[in-house]
DNA sequence: GGGGCGATGTGCT
DNA sequence: GCACATCGCCCCA
């Protein structure tokens, strides 16, 4: 079937080498696949956020190139994985092209294959292995960690790949402020598929100041 | 060399 | 709704 062929198609680098805000919309409905000795898990992306390098104070690239964020400087289509809060990993797809940093954080998705393995990897997560609600749940369900940083998702032989999946109609895409981000809170660079059970609940970022605020 | 805090998840109140 | 676990990164001294 035509749709199945599209589901299986590995996305090409030139499709991904675009502004992260546009890439975020394009990734919705796409499928991230991880293959390990344990098995295969596939996840249809339902919620993402754009982080656009140098002029975005919330981006890891904002203060320049460092060993940690090196992958974000391109090339596009690679996986940027980072460690946060001393216990979680988050995964991004790098956008734009060489020399221009930017990426899309993968926040949530629906497990379309390998629910048993997903549940085994994250037994306490709500959704019983069928949804990955939140960026750290998403990475653990797929078995991603620091070792997967820099993988080329457009390489058809890679252990982690990005498949085209289904395109999502514009009217089904919603947007709003990014979760857990205090800087640039007015910029609606979070995108999600309306009605998806995987979409995480909004939480504003930044610690509440002791009493300075208002 | 030291300290503050973060693109979070979970369980308990 | 809130506190807390837990540690690497980055800024500043």
TrEMBL record:
Any Pfam family hit? Pur_DNA_glyco
The protein's Enzyme Commission number: 3.2.2.-
InterPro entries, per the entry: Formyl_transferase-like_C_sf (IPR011034), MPG (IPR003180), MPG_sf (IPR036995)
The EC class name is hydrolase
Protein known as: Putative 3-methyladenine DNA glycosylase
Member of which family? Belongs to the DNA glycosylase MPG family.
Please list the GO biological process terms of this entry: base-excision repair
